[in-house]
Write a sequence for this structure.
């Protein structure tokens, strides 16, 4: 049974007891591309050109004859994929009449056609493309001059404005400096990788869109003949990525070469470390250290700190000079305090009794016991709600009107104090240091008399309704009827 190229590659790898990781370390072809080559699946390849290069490199690593494999494919399927043919010249001849119809194509051919690869007929003469020789200083100058004559003006790369392109001069025969050796090493790696993949400059230009004379300059290490370092870095990154090289390492080497080239052009910058430190210390001065901005900032901070300290001292001095005045006693202190009433001492008559004595007679005074002292009536009224009240002390009206909540009234009398209010819930009474609470409920009319012996509540006697007094009329008295006179009778 006929085996495809992918199956032959896989069998050859298994016979040598090699893993895909080991092949990757040797060829630097990613594992997913190796698996695709063994599975005859070329749809995952970045491009047909790279797929052809990977296939050739993989076959050479396994020591397989790629030409023999291609001949077997031609005999088995009567078609040969164009991308596996060995050849790199620009004069590749393809016979259009030898392309078979799509109905007669095999699975291999249909996959290649889907990838957009043109197929060649086996009757075509097996003209092999000439391997591109290594670029040397001897053959670089004619190639560059030929490319310059045929190529149009270069277009800017990566969207950057390019400088006017300088004419590429022949490479002078001079001793290579350090920077030139670094650039030449980078170009040698690019050229070696391209030759390993059997790629031409035309194929590379069609994929990464970098002109051929730029590619030649990159491979020759003549980076000074490129438009600018920025564009050179972009072209180098694209070229290394396309060849599946370590682009980061190449960019670091390129940066190192630029730094070395700068030191070569300006030797005065490459001074010894001790000398540079001495020069730096010599330039140091107080004027450079004390910048105007620093002085201004320090001054503002000092002013703010001074104002803060002065404000604190000022506040402390004002507080110390303030004299705390005594406040009025609270209502609770007034209610709890026991008032002392001055007692008027009345002179009591003294009875002097003369008693005979043997000796000298001296009068002995005799004081009668004082009568019971009466303190009087003391009343403290606190207003809790709006109400009307009338206060009568010993028959004299002291207050009559409306009061507001929060008001306090103190009354003292000798005999009695009478209070009349229209809202008993609005007044709280303290009678002779005894808190009696509210006088009654809301809206209740209460009249109370606080006397020496107790509290009296007068009973309101209802007034009888007035009755209609009958009107006094004169009683008619009977009058005597005059008697008929005789004269009248006689008449």
């Amino acid at each position: 049974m006929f085996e495809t190229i992918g199956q032959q590659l896989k069998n050859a790898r298994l016979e040598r007891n090699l893993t895909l990781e080991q092949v990757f370390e040797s060829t630097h072809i990613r594992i997913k591309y190796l698996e695709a080559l063994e599975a005859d699946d070329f749809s995952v390849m970045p491009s047909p050109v790279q797929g052809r290069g990977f296939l050739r490199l993989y076959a050479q690593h396994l020591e397989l004859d790629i030409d023999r494999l291609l001949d077997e494919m031609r005999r088995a399927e009567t078609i040969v994929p164009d991308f596996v043919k060995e050849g790199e010249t620009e004069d590749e001849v393809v016979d259009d009449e030898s392309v078979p119809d799509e109905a007669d194509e095999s699975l291999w051919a249909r996959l290649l056609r889907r990838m957009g690869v043109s197929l060649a007929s086996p009757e075509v003469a097996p003209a092999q493309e000439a391997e591109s020789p290594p670029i040397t200083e001897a053959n670089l100058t004619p190639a560059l001059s030929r490319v310059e004559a045929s190529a149009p003006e270069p277009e800017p790369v990566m969207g950057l404005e390019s400088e006017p392109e300088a004419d590429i001069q022949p490479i002078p025969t001079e001793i290579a400096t350090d920077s030139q050796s670094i650039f030449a090493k980078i170009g040698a790696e690019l050229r070696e990788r391209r030759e390993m993949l059997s790629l031409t400059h035309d194929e590379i230009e069609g994929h990464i869109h970098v002109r051929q004379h730029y590619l030649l300059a990159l491979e020759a290490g003549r980076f000074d003949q490129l438009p600018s370092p920025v564009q050179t870095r972009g072209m180098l990154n694209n070229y290394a990525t396309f060849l599946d090289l370590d682009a980061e390492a190449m960019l670091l080497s390129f940066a190192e070469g630029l730094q070395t080239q700068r030191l070569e052009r300006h030797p005065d910058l490459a001074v010894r470390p001790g000398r540079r430190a001495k020069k730096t210390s010599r330039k140091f001065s107080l004027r450079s250290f004390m910048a105007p901005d620093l002085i201004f900032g320090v001054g503002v901070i000092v002013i703010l700190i001074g104002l803060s300290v002065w404000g604190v001292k000022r506040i402390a001095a004002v507080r110390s000079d303030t004299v705390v005045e005594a406040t009025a006693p609270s209502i609770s202190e007034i209610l709890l305090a026991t008032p002392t009433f001055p007692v008027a001492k009345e002179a009591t008559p003294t009875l002097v009794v003369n008693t005979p004595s043997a000796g000298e007679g001296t009068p002995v005074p005799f004081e009668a016991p004082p009568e019971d002292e009466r303190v009087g009536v003391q009343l403290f009224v606190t207003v809790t709600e709006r109400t009307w009240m009338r206060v009568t002390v010993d028959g004299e009206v002291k207050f009559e009107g409306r009061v507001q909540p929060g008001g306090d009234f103190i009354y003292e009398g000798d005999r009695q104090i009478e209070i009349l209010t229209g809202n008993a819930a609005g007044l709280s009474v303290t009678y002779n240091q005894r808190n009696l609470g509210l006088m009654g409920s809301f809206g209740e009319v209460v009249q109370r008399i606080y006397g020496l012996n107790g509290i009296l509540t007068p009973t309101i006697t209802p007034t009888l309704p007035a009755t209609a007094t009958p009107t006094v009329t004169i009683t008619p008295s009977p009058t005597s009827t005059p008697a008929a006179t005789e004269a009248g009778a006689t008449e």
Notes: The longest helix spans residues 292-321. The chain is about 40% helix and 15% strand.
